[in-house]
Amino acid sequence: MARFIYTLLISLLSLLAPLYLLWRGRRQPDYLRHWSERYGRYPAHTARPPALTTLWLHCVSVGETRAAAPLIKLLQARYPEARLLLTHTTPTGRATALELFGDSVSCAYLPYDTPWGVAAFLDHFRPRLGVLMETEIWPNLIATCQQRGIPLMLANARLSERSARGYARLSALTRPALQGLAAIAAQTSADAQRFAQLTDRHIEISGNIKFDNQPSNELLQRGRQWRSQWAERRVVLAASTREGEEALLLDAWMQRPDDGSLLVIVPRHPQRFDAVAALANARGLRLARRSATTTIPANCQVWLGDSMGELYAYYAACDLAIIGGSLLDYGCQNLIEACAVGVPVLLGPSTYNFAEAAQAALTAGAARQCADATTLLQQADRLLADADARQRMAAAAQQFASQHRGASERTLALLEQLLTA
After folding, report:
1. What would the pLDDT profile of 324-361 be if each residue is shown by its tens digit?
2. CATH number, domain at 27?
3. Which residue, of 72, 225, 381, 419, has the greatest Cβ tally within 10 A?
4. 64 belongs to the catalytic site
């Protein structure tokens, strides 16, 4: 009965979805493309070739797609004759997959979770196995895969306390869905415990695949080249910032003495680039944009990182990084990437999406946490004035990142068990 009511609601919402897509398309035109795929209708040439096994991974958006990259590379090496299908929900996730993997993978949108949309998707692509990245629990998709004997695994799974409480309130729907998965591989023991409270099945602990992502030498070199053009300026990076956070950081930045330091802001979502530029201009701050130049004028106070796929370059160009999503109640963006580059990390109070990783980084001395934007920038100033402290944090960050690698191999081993079962 719970899934029947859910299906009625999701079906009604799918009828209204074009209005949402049109609204999103005002700022991101790519939302106006490939609508038919969201209802389970795909171009004929994308159907599975009869001779190929299709291995399917669902990566909602940019973060999940980048997180899945080490696992995808392992699958390509282990199963070179298979076709890898990546499905997404957002255009930026799809664009990221094409940027990372080109035509070595197939990309499509996962349909809305209606029984007919899911059935059409599975009929078209006929996957041998499916992987849902992080926290994607779609009852009709899971039930249909179970009925068809398609093993479906929740990989790199994470579940915050807040989300766990929400799922517990819908246990009549979520418990059967979790039971229908072929395997759940949680990032941490805390995630595993929260999943175990929602289902009586065994939960594996595989670690966080994001630790296995390695920055490319090309991006690191690009960042170093940028930095070499900026003379001796000290550089603070605000990475993957979310709506509302840039205003707080810019206001706090204006309270500092203008000592020639440079604030680099890289918003999490590209549709907000112009809005963030407007925030800086409204405050009278001297702004330059990555899309216009990497040779920053000497009097520039803020550089807007309005580009995609260059976050590792920004990390390589900075002295320390404030991780976005942590100043307001967004749960924090990925701090692991900064640590992998050896960048000292500053966090705001909200870290529930990376709770265990954040605590481990703090314990290791790779990160420091502050209550608000003003305190964060005060801490940044202290670190900018103390090269030895920055060096200790940088070394701790790299060691922290290296110690937690290996989740991709453990996840691959679980997938191989499902393939041979």
Report:
1. 999 999 999 999 999 999 999 999 999 998 988 999 99
2. 3.40.50.11720
3. 72
4. yes
